[in-house]
Design goal:
It comes from Oncorhynchus mykiss. The chain is α+β, with helices and mostly antiparallel strands. Among the domains are: 136 residues, PH-domain like, CATH 2.30.29.30; 237 residues, START domain (Alpha-D-Glucose-1,6-Bisphosphate, Chain A, domain 4). Helices cover 38% and strands 23% of the residues. The protein contains twelve helices and 20 strands. The strands form three sheets. Strands 9, 10, 13, 14, 15, 16, 17, 18, 19 and 20 form a ten-stranded mixed β-sheet that branches. Helix 5 runs antiparallel to helix 7 and helix 8 runs parallel beside helix 12. The protein is rod-shaped and about 155 Å long. The N and C termini lie far apart (140 Å).
């Protein structure tokens, strides 16, 4: 083989020393190889001869063999290298690690075959590293560019690399840096050993010189010999070539490796910043999208709440009602006004004969009666007259709940057999009617549908007396509750005055009873009620000698309700109905 094709093959002293020290674990028998091989540089210079060295599982190249002390121009870690012989050119081979490719060309096919076998042998058997389990990655960056300081131009070519590739590069640089640190440490240890040996030799030379100068002058000066032994004392030992390590080349390579690490780290930081900006933009976009969706949702929800739902009972009353309390009462009053107008028109067209008989005299209702529920009726009447007419406080302990104009609503805490009853009481005043008229209008079943809007149907089960009847009625279903029906005794009584100053007082008492002709059914739930309507007529004297007219009449109403069908809303509606009755009572 010619000089240009010469090979250096030797067992490295460095490998032996490393194995003995236990720092690394090189494979015994893997020789360091070096030789001249052509390498493709660029399109201008083409193929150029370079000195290529295969050592410690690393393929490095130099400009020439004489310039090895200036450091290598590039290196590849062969752990993950791919060696590809050219398909058509018998002298060419390609060594690639990730996206870094070296195009090499031997002098002949046998020369190429030798290089391929040597590289494969190093890849298969080399295990050198600063740690026994050190991972190796292919070098993706030529150290030549690192030697030039890694300018912004050189690093810009790596902007397309992914973060994963850059991390692999940094691990490769770490492996190379660990080997370089081990090499430099070995060099420094050799220098330290050389200095120690030099100090021992210098001490020996000084002892020999003292033996050569036994005489001294009187003035204390030494007599020196000219045997040249002092030259040994000051002889400097050059550390160059200690353990065959090129310190200058290793220093240049170390500098290039650290520069490569800094450059790759800077590129990783750039990638992270760009990725963070990208994620921030996506986050802002998603946040804006979510804000628009939430605004659209709230807008649609508001529009949905504004819509009227007349198809279901929830719109009228219930926990799921879509209207507030004021709108609910306004709607009830508006419906009552429309119903009043329709009824007034109907009363105008009909004759008074088609209406029920006139109000019977008061003597009919002043008697207790002799039917089977007479004692129960009397007990209920006395109970209502005792507790219902009391104001706030007292034995009944009525508590004011609602006050609106002349109307007041009270509540009393009552509990029977562990069941909370809490009866409600409402008081109001109506001008132009008497208590007798209002109570008869409330009690008479012939006009029940004129003012009661919650009844689906009703019938009189039994006529006990002229002023007492048993009525069965079915109420309209309020979703989602089950439909209710009631069976109650309704009695009308005139309360006799104790003295002439007491007002004319009438009472209608409704309470639940049982009857064989109206047994509970599965279709409805039987409800229990206890209701009393007490009306007192107050007369204000007219001015002058004028006759008493309806303008001088005021009816004080006390409405007491206790039962499963009673609610504050129904109570208020029933009391307000009294204000609507003045026109109807004219026909009645």
């Amino acid at each position: 083989m010619s000089d240009n094709q010469s090979w250096n093959s030797s067992g490295s002293d460095e490998d032996v020393e490393t194995s003995e020290s236990g720092v690394g674990q090189p494979v015994v028998g893997v020789a360091e190889l070096g030789g001249i091989i052509s390498k493709w540089t660029n399109y201008i210079h083409g193929w150029q001869d370079r000195w290529v060295v295969l050592k410690n599982n690393t393929l490095s190249y130099y400009k020439s063999q004489d310039e090895r002390e200036f450091g290598c121009r590039g290196s590849l870690c062969l752990s993950k290298a791919v060696i590809t012989p050219h398909e058509f050119d018998e002298c060419r081979l390609d060594v690639s690690v990730n996206d870094s490719v070296w195009y090499l060309r031997a002098t002949d096919s046998e020369h190429r075959h030798q290089w391929i076998n040597s590289i494969e042998l190093h890849r298969a058997e080399s295990g050198y590293g600063s740690e026994p389990s050190l991972r190796r990655h292919g070098s993706m960056l030529s150290l030549t560019s690192a030697t030039s300081g890694y300018s912004a131009t050189s690093t810009s070519s790596f902007k397309g690399h992914s973060l994963r590739e850059k991390l692999a590069e940094m691990e490769t640089f770490r492996d190379i840096l660990c080997r370089q640190v081990d090499t430099l440490q070995k060099y420094f240890d050799g220098c330290s050993d050389a200095v120690s040996k030099d100090e021992l030799q210098r001490d020996k030379v000084v002892e020999d010189d003292e033996d050569d100068f036994p005489n001294t002058r009187s003035d204390g000066e030494f007599i020196h010999n000219n045997n040249g032994s002092k030259e040994k004392l000051f002889r400097s030992l050059s550390p160059k070539g200690i353990n065959g390590i090129d310190f200058k080349g290793e220093a240049i390579t170390f500098k290039a490796t650290t520069a490569g690490i800094l450059s790759t780290l800077s590129h990783c930081i750039d990638l992270m910043v760009k990725r963070e900006d990208s994620w921030q933009k996506r986050l802002d976009k998603e946040t804006e999208k979510r804000r628009r969706i939430e605004e659209g949702y709230h807008s649609a929800l508001s529009e949905l709440k504004k819509k009227s739902h007349f198809g279901g009972p929830d719109y009228e009353e219930g926990p799921n009602s879509l209207i507030n309390e004021d709108e609910f009462f306004d709607a009830v009053e508006a419906a009552l006004d429309r119903q009043d107008k329709m009824e007034e028109q109907s009363h105008t067209e009909k004759s008074r004969i088609q209406r029920s008989s006139p109000v019977p005299p008061g003597d009919v209702y002043s008697t207790i009666g002799s039917h089977r529920f007479a004692d129960k009726v009397e007990e209920m009447v006395q109970n209502h007259m005792t507790y219902s007419l009391q104001d706030m406080g007292g034995d009944a302990n009525w508590q004011l709940v609602v006050e609106e104009g002349e109307m007041k609503v009270y509540r009393r805490e009552v509990e029977e057999n562990g069941i909370v009853l809490d009866p409600l009481k409402a008081t109001h005043s109506v001008k132009g009617v008497t208590g007798h008229e209002l109570c008869h209008y409330f009690w008479d079943t012939n006009v029940r549908n004129d003012w009661e809007t919650t009844i689906e149907n009703f019938n009189v089960v039994e006529m006990l007396s002229d002023n007492a009847v048993i009525v069965y009625q079915t109420h309209k279903r309020v979703w989602p509750a089950s439909q209710r029906d009631v069976l109650y005794l309704s009695a009308m009584r005139k309360i006799l005055a104790n003295n002439e100053n007491d007002p004319d007082t009438w009472l209608v008492c409704n309470f639940s009873v049982d009857h064989d002709n109206a047994q509970p059914t599965n279709r409805c739930v039987r409800a229990k009620i206890n209701i009393a309507m007490i009306c007192q007529t107050l007369v204000s004297p007219p001015e002058g000698d004028r006759e008493i007219s309806r303008d001088n009449l005021t009816c004080k109403i006390t409405y007491v309700a206790n039962g499963e069908l009673i609610s504050l809303t129904a109570l208020i509606v029933n009391v307000r109905q009294a204000n609507k009755c003045r026109g109807k009572l004219a026909y009645y």
